[in-house]
Each structure stands twice: as C-alpha cells, then as structure tokens.
Amino acid sequence: MPIRTILVALALEDDSKRIADRAIQLAKQHKAQLVTVHVFENPPLHDASLPPLIDLVALTGMLEDQYADQLQSLLGAADKPAVTHVETGKPHEVIERLATSYNADLIVIGPGVAKSMRERVFGSTADRVVRCAPCPVLVVRKESHAPYKHIAVGVDFSEHAQAAALWASHLSPMATRELIHVFDIPLGFELAMRKAGTSQTEIDQYRDAR
C-alpha cells in the first residue's frame, strides 16, 4: 500500500503552514507527488462593496493567481514541484473529485471550524471529507517537526479498524503503534461484583476507572 500521491487541501488560513509542512514531510518520506488545492467561492454578482463596472471574470482570475502563488510558497520546500489547483465550488466536493481524479493515496487537511449554520449541522469541510473521501484522510492539528513516532489506532474489530491499523503501519513504518479498544461494562456488572463478595472500595475503584 505505497503512498505515491498526496492531496493537500489548504484554506490559506492561520493553520495552513503546519498542514503544508506535514504534507511536505510525508511526501519526502514516501517520495510522493504532492497535489494541492484551494477552493473559494465565486465573487458575488451583486456586491455593493465592489465598483459597479468591475470585471468579475478578471477578478476571479486575479484571485486564482494570488491563491496559486500562496500555495506554491507554502509548498516550496517539497522535493518535487507540487501540482496546484485553485477552484471555485463546494470545498468537500472539489477535494473528493480531485482525490478520485488523481487516484490519491492520502488526503491531508486541517480540522477546520464550522463557520455557518449549515456547517454546524453537516460538519466542517474536514468532517465531510473524512466521511466521503475515496482514500484515507489525515487531519493535521499540530506543527510537524519529524515523522510520526507513535500512532494510536482505535479499533472495534471491524474491517475498517483492520484497514486503519494496516494503514498506520504504512503511514510511518518506524513508528510504534498502540491499538486501543474501548468497551462499556453495564451497571449490572456492579451487582454481580457485590454478589461475588467484592468490597465496596473495589467497586468504587471500578466505577472511578470507568
């Protein structure tokens, strides 16, 4: 399961550098090609803040050039030049389409923040990409200084959990991996403990441990 193509989605906000840095680190580690995308909304056709005779096509072109320059700057340290996309539309749909088009092995994205009522209901762009992406998604939350050294994998013994554990080994082969399975013990178990002669102190310790 080699990682040959990494799609990195950047909102060009405060967290973009740490997302780009992690994507660069992974691309160098796996000798992968980086594809980067920024998605923005079309300028409004009727906006009182814009000059009345402004050429919206020209404005869109200027924005695309500006954003493309920012993307190239953020990913300039990569071993291979990144393929750059600046598009308009719904971010999660564009990201999913490009991931499919490039047959991406990994999507790298920031956690994002819900900025509208719609996003609060349906989730941020990252939430929606994680649910619908055609490949694994890495959500970057912290700055990148080195390859991952320790990976925790939540497992529930499903096929998806098995795939996640396998993918963790490919993401950073030298990292230690910890499989975590969480289960809930029903209240009835406490009654069984009492019947078995368990002391109240031990029962309290069990309850606190939950």
Automatic annotation (TrEMBL):
Residue span(s) of domain UspA: 3-141
Entries under CDD domains matching the protein: USP-like (cd00293)
Cross-referenced Pfam families: Usp
Superkingdom field: Bacteria
Gene3D superfamilies: 3.40.50.12370
InterPro entries membership: Universal_stress_UspA (IPR006015), UspA (IPR006016)
Family: Belongs to the universal stress protein A family.
Alphabetical list of PANTHER family matching this protein: STRESS RESPONSE PROTEIN NHAX (PTHR46268), UNIVERSAL STRESS PROTEIN UP12 (PTHR46268:SF6)
Name listed for the protein in its UniProt record: UspA domain-containing protein
Annotated organism of origin: Advenella faeciporci
